[in-house]
């Protein structure tokens, strides 16, 4: 019997190694896997490359991981926010590397990794600073920039319900990057609000098929 | 001269959004446009974080931290709305499925270039979000901005001096004093506020305008 | 009020012009929009380019469209089947053009069109007859073929339920190409088993958001 | 020599599929492997037309024309299975998410090239389906075939003469007389049927084999 459900947050983040590339779901605070991030801070991995839309809000979650000096580089679209003070300070001190990617290219590059494409020509960013030095091509009537996949060793995502085969459903706008990051990581770890019995999730409504998920942990029941 | 305030600008943009349009309203000023869309018409608001059929802000106490818009503010979903992931959301933009997006700007050039993401200051922390995808994705890109900076410089320029968001992507400019179409035939002034002559308007901007008012 | 529901199959296929590129959903007979195809035959458009996984089965549906000599070219992955006699005869007589595309590249090219990509580097088909004459590139450890989007003027798809905003859900393996074709056509026309009231489809479970659908017709109630 | 029949070949392949594997069984001979997978183990069958957790054929009378496999035969879905569209289905293949795919073949070369879609006959109507995606997508590609053609030619060849499906993609070959791994170190013979010596086997094929049996 295959059971991807792990019983603790510690077990969920086991094996994340120093230097790993880790995708973290969430857009702002919606869909941010805060329990997994806290477990990752406790676990101690460092020199991480983080892929997230933002660069942390306030002092918790991703911001706390940054504050603990575990992050070498962040790949994101929108680091600067009213409450991104932790990132801002590290960036201005030269203590964190930033790769700024337009949000749609971030999504498309993650999808390209998940789908096994070698590269994509995307129109977003053509002629801007963020395409400087990149290969471009005119195809038909438009200009495109060649962008490469973004893959990860691990993805930490938040879903609403999950079963022992790793099937996931999300809740409202917390879905955001979860389903695509799950496809692009060698090991996807999902924190879920609730566990579901196998077969309880409607097969027509499963958003992330279990093939993309390696570990599931319930936040309601799991002790760290 | 009856310069429009920001609410009046939003109301003016709203008047040009037809029933049935799929629309993305950028964060900041463009978000106000939603307040002036007629509630009895089906206009489909898209939010980059995976919503279509986005509704107004919830009643106080009804906020759901997992139901937010691109500006991270609590919103609602209309009956008939739906959720999807970021890949699908940006495919809607980049694939040309949105009819209209409304964006703010630092500068717009006479060729329709848009600068709205970065001041270019060397110590600024850059952040782009979905601006570049929206700029090149929608069938029509509307920009809302005051025509002049606080120091009286035109934000409609020959060439943008701020870093670009997109090239030749702006179709129409809604300002506090005029509505201007950006076309292959030049900058067509469609409307001016009362008390502002075409010559007065032309004197404010460094690029040639065409009087195309009704 | 926006109502994308049209009351007849004739109205559903109105405006499909001679020479149009038309995507048709379905894999084998599952998800084949046979009512729409019959209406298209009655409507009379000719010189069509058809995009479908197959090239018709038996004598009905797509095979009947082919038999009526309305199709100039077909883009598909798997034309030859035990019951593809209509296509086989046309092909051997030189009366139909065939562009053979590996099934995954067919899907990826349709998705690229829907997502606004200019081209994609895909590993599928590298080094084979189906990549002859195409641009290739080594990226990392693998070799890729450059493939371009496939767009259509119209997509004819079958869904299970649809509402007046064009939101669709599918049924089992009849989903197949429907959701991706809907994204790649200027005008997507869906035949549905049942109409749904606005709001009756679970917003978490809508598979094709209405933005991708222009017309919906119910096969239970629609008279041709 | 105890040559395996096609059912025995399928049973032999099934023995090498571990619990938890995500597996695609190609149409034709590989489909038979499903009959030999142990029902008490979770092995996840993928079908290119948008199924994961595919179950066995339904009882007579229970067929659903909208629940079919890649070969267009009626199937069932297990509890915990799910449906998805063709884009996602082929992303699973091309993205390397399947552990194993099992394919039939006309020929396999010593370098692991696969030919299984087209005889190359000038009047043949070609059809490729998902073969090229499967060939290059799965983490391990198993090929099942009789070692010799009906006229006694080896289908394991130095270079394929039929048009290729994929280059260097086959990892393991299950034949009616031997199991052979295709590696950088050569063609490693893992198993031979009773009554077939290594020398006998080598005499059947035109490429050098390595005796790696236990």
Any overview of this molecule?
- The complex is a heterotetramer, with 2 copies of chain A (224 residues) and 2 copies of chain B (214 residues).
- Chain A has a single domain (17-194), classed as Glutaconate Coenzyme A-transferase.
- In chain A, strands 1, 2, 3, 4, 8, 9, 10 and 11 form an 8-stranded mixed beta sheet that branches.
- In chain A, 21% of the residues lie in helices and 27% in strands.
- Chain A is built from 6 helices and 11 strands.
- In chain A, strand 1 (21-24), helix 2 and strand 2 form a beta-alpha-beta unit.
- The model of chain A has no long low-confidence stretch (mean pLDDT 96).
- By secondary structure, chain A is α/β, with parallel strands linked by helices.
- With 214 residues, chain B is an alpha/beta fold.
- Chain B has one domain: Glutaconate Coenzyme A-transferase, CATH 3.40.1080.
- Chain B contains 4 helices and 13 strands.
- Chain B has helices at 6-15, 86-94, 131-137, 198-204, and strands at residues 22-25, 44-47, 51-55, 76-83, 100-104, 107-109, 114-115, 140-144, 156-157, 172-174, 178-183, 186-192, 209-211.
- Chain B has a 10-stranded mixed beta sheet. A 3-stranded mixed beta sheet of chain B has the order 7-6-9, with no helix packed on it.
- In chain B, a hairpin with a 3-residue loop joins strand 10 (172-174) and strand 11 (178-183).
- Chains in contact: A-B, A-C, A-D, B-C, C-D.
- The interface between A and B is large, with 48 and 40 residues.
């Amino acid at each position: 019997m295959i059971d991807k459900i792990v019983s603790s947050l510690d077990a969920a983040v086991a094996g994340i190694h120093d230097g790993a590339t880790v995708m973290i779901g969430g857009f702002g605070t919606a869909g941010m896997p805060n329990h997994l991030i806290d477990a990752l801070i406790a676990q101690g991995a460092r020199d991480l490359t983080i892929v997230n839309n933002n660069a942390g809000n306030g002092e918790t979650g991703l911001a706390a991981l940054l504050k603990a000096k575990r992050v070498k580089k962040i790949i994101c679209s929108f680091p600067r926010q009213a409450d991104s003070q932790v990132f801002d300070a590290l960036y201005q001190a030269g203590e964190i590397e930033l790769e700024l990617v337009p949000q749609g290219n971030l999504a498309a590059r993650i999808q390209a990794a998940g789908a096994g494409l070698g590269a994509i020509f995307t129109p977003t960013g053509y002629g801007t600073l963020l395409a400087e030095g990149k290969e471009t091509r005119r195809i038909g009537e438009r200009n495109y920039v060649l962008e490469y996949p973004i893959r990860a060793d691990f993805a930490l995502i938040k879903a609403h319900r999950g079963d022992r085969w790793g099937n996931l459903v999300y809740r409202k706008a917390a879905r955001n990057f979860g389903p695509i990051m799950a496809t692009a990581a060698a090991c996807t770890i999902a924190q879920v609000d609730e566990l579901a019995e196998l077969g309880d999730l409607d097969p027509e409504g499963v958003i992330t098929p279990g093939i993309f998920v390696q570990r599931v942990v319930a936040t309601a029941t799991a002790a760290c | 001269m009856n310069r429009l305030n920001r609410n009046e600008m939003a109301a003016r943009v709203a008047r040009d959004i037809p029933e049935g349009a799929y629309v993305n309203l950028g964060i900041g000023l463009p978000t106000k446009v939603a307040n002036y869309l007629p509630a009895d018409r089906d206009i489909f608001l898209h939010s980059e974080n995976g919503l279509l059929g986005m509704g107004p802000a919830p009643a106080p106490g009804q906020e759901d931290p997992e139901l937010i818009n691109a500006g991270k503010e609590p919103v609602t979903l209309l009956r008939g709305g739906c959720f999807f992931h970021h890949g699908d959301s940006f495919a809607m933009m980049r694939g040309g499925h949105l009819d209209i997006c409304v964006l703010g700007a630092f500068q717009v050039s006479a060729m329709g270039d848009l600068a709205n993401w970065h001041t270019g200051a060397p110590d600024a922390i850059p952040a782009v979000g979905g601006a570049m995808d929206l700029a090149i994705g929608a069938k029509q890109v509307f920009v809302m901005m005051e025509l002049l900076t606080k120091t009286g410089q035109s934000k409609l320029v020959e060439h943008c001096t701020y870093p670009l968001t997109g090239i030749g992507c702006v179709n129409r400019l809604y300002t506090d004093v005029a509505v201007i179409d950006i076309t292959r035939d030049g900058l067509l002034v469609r409307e001016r506020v009362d008390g502002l002559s075409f010559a007065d308007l032309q004197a404010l901007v460094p690029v040639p305008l065409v009087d195309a008012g009704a």
